[in-house]
Write a structure and sequence with these properties.
10 helices; mainly alpha; 84% helix
Length: 191
């Protein structure tokens, strides 16, 4: 049975996402063992005492192409409080990611309407642009589920003139990613 290139792309990036998650968890446990075990109260308390700063950093990161992986914030949330607060934090992170993706999508749509951008698109991206428009739906789903930079992909899809309603519908896969990764992080701490 031959697997389509789209499914191969999804599997390949899904495996990269799981590898990235494993790498982050390994780095976290190593950091916890080497750094936090020696001075955990002093060092980490400054981050737990002011969660609004963490939320602001997360929101900015999600707007600026996911500079910091969301999984790091999930690990922070797990260590902050009980299970209910962890679930609420992961839900908050998912909603913020979805909203910031849509904001960058709208910025992309703004560029799509500009004459200068159309000129640049025709001059430099004439071969790639039809592919972005053709595979936009698939690209949204893959970016929502994998470590591809969510905001950057949303900006690109918006700048390709992709319909807003379709984007919002398929961007809901972002919530699935947060649920899965949140569950994996939760389970890894139970071991």
């Amino acid at each position: 049975m031959k697997i389509s290139p789209r499914i191969q792309f999804l599997i390949k990036n899904g495996l990269k996402g799981l590898a990235w998650m494993a790498l982050l968890l390994a780095a976290y446990f190593l950091f916890k063992k080497l750094v936090l075990s020696n001075a955990s109260d002093e060092w980490i308390q400054q981050f737990y005492a002011r969660p609004e700063i963490i939320y602001l950093i997360y929101s900015a990161s999600e707007f600026f192409f996911g500079v910091i992986p969301p999984e790091i914030f999930m690990i922070w949330a797990f260590n902050k409080a009980d299970t209910l607060h962890y679930v609420l934090n992961v839900g908050f992170f998912a909603v913020v990611s979805y909203i910031m993706g849509y904001v960058t999508f709208l910025i992309g749509q703004f560029f799509f309407k500009k004459t200068t951008f159309r000129f640049i698109r025709k001059k430099f991206f004439s071969q790639q642009w039809p592919l972005i428009h053709k595979y936009g739906l698939f690209l949204i789903i893959v970016a929502a589920l994998t470590p591809l930079p969510w905001s950057a992909v949303s900006l690109l899809i918006g700048s390709a003139g992709y319909p807003s309603k379709r984007y919002l519908k398929y961007a809901l896969f972002r919530f699935l990613r947060f649920a899965l990764y949140g569950y994996i992080i939760f389970q890894s701490h139970q071991i």
